[in-house]
């Protein structure tokens, strides 16, 4: 399932033969610092061996919904939704109480792992109450799914 390409760019201008240069060496031989653009996200990396576009396949997110402390009704806690191993980084995460987004949630910066898989964590303070449902809605590539928090009570 091919989704897209990782684009590789050199920082410096081409030499007289049209080849990118870095530190006086042609890119093919010894350029250690390169700029990558992955679906609009710019990354700085040291990967001299990557010389042409690399195929990247789509991967569905793995989702974990949990609380910082064991769930207790009426006691303040933190609701956490960790989403990992997804590609492309076209994703949104919402924390919900009875289907309505909980305000003031915080989210980590988008980070990537080996193989261009990404991960994010979103969290918010909440006080669980009986007969209320808390969930994490993850929308990846336009497809949304809710993951319900279980209080372990």
UniProtKB/TrEMBL annotation:
| Keywords annotated in UniProt | Immunity, Immunoglobulin domain, MHC I, Secreted
SMART domains (alphabetical) = IGc1
Has the keyword Acetylation been applied to this entry?
A: no
Please name the Gene3D superfamilies in this protein's record.
Immunoglobulins (2.60.40.10)
Domain Ig-like intervals: 61-140
Principal localization reads secreted
| Record-level GO BP terms | antigen processing and presentation of peptide antigen via MHC class I; response to metal ion
Which terms in the GO cellular component ontology are assigned? extracellular region; MHC class I protein complex
Q: Write down the Pfam families for this protein, in alphabetical order.
A: C1-set
Checking InterPro entries in the record gives:
Ig-like_dom, Ig-like_dom_sf, Ig-like_fold, Ig/MHC_CS, Ig_C1-set, MHC/Immunoglobulin
Compartments in which it is found: Secreted
Q: Which SUPFAM superfamilies does the entry link to?
A: Immunoglobulin (SSF48726)
PANTHER family per record: BETA-2-MICROGLOBULIN, MHC CLASS II-RELATED
Please state which protein family the record places this protein in.
Answer: Belongs to the beta-2-microglobulin family.
What this protein is called in its record is Beta-2-microglobulin
Q: Which organism is it from?
A: Astyanax mexicanus
């Amino acid at each position: 399932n091919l989704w897209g390409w990782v684009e590789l760019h050199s920082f410096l201008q081409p030499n007289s033969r049209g080849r990118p240069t870095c530190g006086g060496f042609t890119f093919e031989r010894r350029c250690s610092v390169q700029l990558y653009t992955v679906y609009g996200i710019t990354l700085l990396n040291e990967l001299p061996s990557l010389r042409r576009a690399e195929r990247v396949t789509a991967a569905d997110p793995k989702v974990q919904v949990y609380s910082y402390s064991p769930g207790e009704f009426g006691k303040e806690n933190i609701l956490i939704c960790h989403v990992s191993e997804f590609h492309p980084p076209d994703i949104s995460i919402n924390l919900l109480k009875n289907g309505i987004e909980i305000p003031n949630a915080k989210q980590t910066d988008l980070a990537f792992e080996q193989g261009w898989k990404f991960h994010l964590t979103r969290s918010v303070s909440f006080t669980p109450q009986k007969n209320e449902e808390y969930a994490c809605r993850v929308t990846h590539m336009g497809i949304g799914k809710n993951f319900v928090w279980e209080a372990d009570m």
